[in-house]
Amino acid sequence: MKNLNMNIEDKEERMAYSSLMLDEFRREMAAYIEALVPGKRIFFNSSHVGPNFKKALDVYSHLELESLPSGGWGYDHFPATVRYARNLGKEIFGMTGKFHTYWGDFHSFKNLDALEFECFNMLTLGAGCSIGDQLHPKGKLSPSSYQLIGKVYEQVKRKEEFCVDINPLSEIALLTPEEFYTSKESGLSPGLIGAMRMLQEMAYQFEIIDSSMDFSKFKIIVLPDKIKFNSNLKNKLKTYMENGGAVIGSYLSMIDTTNEDNLFSLKYLGEGKFDRDFILPNEKIGKSLPKEEHVMYLKGLEIESLEDEVILESVQPYFNRENNFFCSHQHAPSSGLKGSPGAIMGKNYIYFSHPIFTIYRKNGARWCKEIFRDALNIFLGEKLLEHNGPSTLITGVNEQKNKNRIVVHLLNYLVEKPSQDIYTIENKIKLYDLNLKLTVPNKKIISVMEENTRKEIPFIQNENTVQVNIDSLEGHHMVIFTYEK
Fold it and tell me: Residue 19 and residue 324: Cα distance in Å, rounded?
């Protein structure tokens, strides 16, 4: 560190050096392996792939995303990681395990439905499948483990032709806060997970990107709660909006606390006065909600709109529940007095003053999802994919250009927490009479087929959209739309 003029007393610099050291190791080891066995595939294992990987990305032949949902990663980790990693230009593999929990759990077996979901979710999100096992010291494989894996892989083998050489189709990008972490921060941002869950549950198609990636591919860029202010990023977002793109931001995302260079037309006044206040839905934002106060479980910011429209009001409580002020078990109710703006809207942006995505991650407040939905609808126009199914239905839209087809993935499994320690899946939920509407501009659909039966089904195409009806689906279902060359 001293040779690099780095301060050994500074934790930030020590963390920066550790990253330099690891990248140096990867380059040396990759060169050594290449000299011994030219052309060998190589990946340096990590339980998370994020923006830091870009520093030595050239030494990886592919990326393997280790993510055992029952082993501490959870069911949010893989989709949040692969939606970023698939934009790095490398072949991607998902990696789960056959264990009930995680590595070292000898003589345990993952539920078949859980292993199906984990592998089919990899296919849905454009990744190959990898299932980890651990060898007994006697060198004997467990027949039951491989019967379990085989039940899943025989299905993967049948589906595979529709899952290779694909390009995910997306309309929205989430900007990852991870790019701007300090040494005190690690893991996936709660705001990112909350935003990802909302988009997934509402069947929007989206990527997770960093600030160096191409913004122009997306209709909307979402800044989830804590994107640290950066002048270069501000300028890039300004250009993006001037060229017709829309930005939805929240809380501390791209807020210049000096008020010298804000992305949004607002004045930052500081942290909110109340631990919890309320928003008041209206016919523009919160259209489907009761038109009375809805609590925001985390403190927002105090802002002043400079020249743009206030599209969501906040309402103050009587007081914070502290010291000499007491009310019931959690927070005081609404005083009826308007507070700082809850959301403002400019020509090509909407900004929410509360951390709506972190609130959703923490509390699952549906009203946060509904106000986000309304903001998206203002800018998006026709959704890429719509369906009449439940929010548990996970969707993916991938194009196989060399085959002239678009593959829609539909996944409906029930994630449960049957124990104190782990989430798992034990049940598939069968759905009936599912209506799909896919936006396909400039493409003439010539056939639609269900993968499970390999039979064509009727469809109706109107200008830019095509509609089909799925009689029933259970677990994982693929619908293949073939278009005219």
Answer: 50
